Amino acid sequence: MYNYAIRFEKDTAPGLAVYCRDLPLLNSYGDDEQHAVSEAVDAIETTLSIYVDERKPIPEATPPQEGERVIYLPAVTVAKIVLWNTMMERDMRKADLRRLLGVHQVQGDRLVDFLHTSKMEQVEAALAALGKRLTIAVEAA
């Protein structure tokens, strides 16, 4: 659902540029493939923040194409994506979420801040307030 596929391209300088079809605003770089992959989660979360800033829903990931590598996001990041997209479906603003949860501005804003590490319990509570339940599945790597 939100496991985004990235591709690498040789840059004019040494290293690799990183792109994602599903997140066209994503722009990242790595010295080599391993470094590029390690930077990919941060690049994806930064790009997700742009969607929040622009009040746009976050697109689901499409199946990977040949030559692409899938990046598996942390569970809390996926939960935040679902929270944000549910808010967008309901035309809710951050202030609406804060009022619903009875929390202060900073606490509410962090629930949809992809660059802030939130406690999973807080995101789950916000999802529950919107009538959603988080389930986790584990699969072989």
UniProtKB/TrEMBL annotation:
Database matches in SUPFAM superfamilies: TTHA1013/TTHA0281-like (SSF143100)
Protein's name according to its UniProt entry: Type II toxin-antitoxin system HicB family antitoxin
Source organism (scientific name): Pseudomonas eucalypticola
